[in-house]
Amino acid sequence: MRAPIISSPRWLARGSGQAPTGYPEQARAVPLKDQAYEIIRHHIITCRFAPGEKLNEAQVAEALGLSRMPVRHALARLRLEGLVTIRPRKGIEVRPIDPAELLQIIEARTVNECHAARLAAGRFTPEEVAALDSVLDETAAALKRHDTEAMMLLDKAFHSTIARASGNPVFFDILSNLHDRAVRFWFISLEQEAHQDSVLQEHRAIRDALAARDAEAAALAMANHIAAFRQNVMLLIGA
Hints:
The structure is a single chain. By secondary structure, the chain is mainly alpha-helical. The chain has nine helices and three strands. It has two domains: 25-94, Winged helix-like DNA-binding domain superfamily/Winged helix DNA-binding domain (Arc Repressor Mutant, subunit A), CATH 1.10.10.10; 99-236, Up-down Bundle (Four Helix Bundle (Hemerythrin (Met), subunit A)), CATH 1.20.120. It has helices at 32-45, 57-64, 68-80, 99-121, 126-144, 148-165, 169-190, 193-211, 215-236, and strands at 54-55, 84-87, 91-94. The chain has a three-stranded antiparallel β-sheet. Strand 2 and strand 3 (91-94) form a beta hairpin. The longest helix has 23 residues, at 99-121. It starts with 31 loop residues before the first helix and ends with a helix.
């Protein structure tokens, strides 16, 4: 395994577990196993740990400045999420990209997320429109500075707002799970700058339909958005 470049996602400082000033005191200390989980997951999602790459628990722990136990806990959690495989006597491997799995996720997203958008349109409040507007403004700023990781987080915030507005907690849970399973594919897709601009325009179309409380237009805009993602990422992974 190459020597990993360990940089912390969001506000996680390497080995410190400290949140920025202004966070509630109870949120400031992050358990070591959670630090390890966040950083390793971040590296897998952003392909710094490449699909199919072998990971060595001791080397990862050394690079993180942690003992092996929190790293072991983190890797076990990532195995449950399907991001790594752990085989006795064979070691740890970042799960390879699987086009068949991607198509299954997209199929599930199309059914569930389009209907969630349809439900949300009938319930969308001015506050939720304002929340989407804020996300879209931040997305435009991230696009200008070519910040793919920020766009990935904002993409999740956009879709989570709609899932929550559907009024159905089951939809929210299903779509959160699908997002977590698809996040590596989304990062690969968003690495392409032309697609970043397309995503912003597609999100604006969804927002406009929701603000107008047009259920069918919202569902159609969401379907078009998911279809564009499918086409782009399948092209990029050569499937």
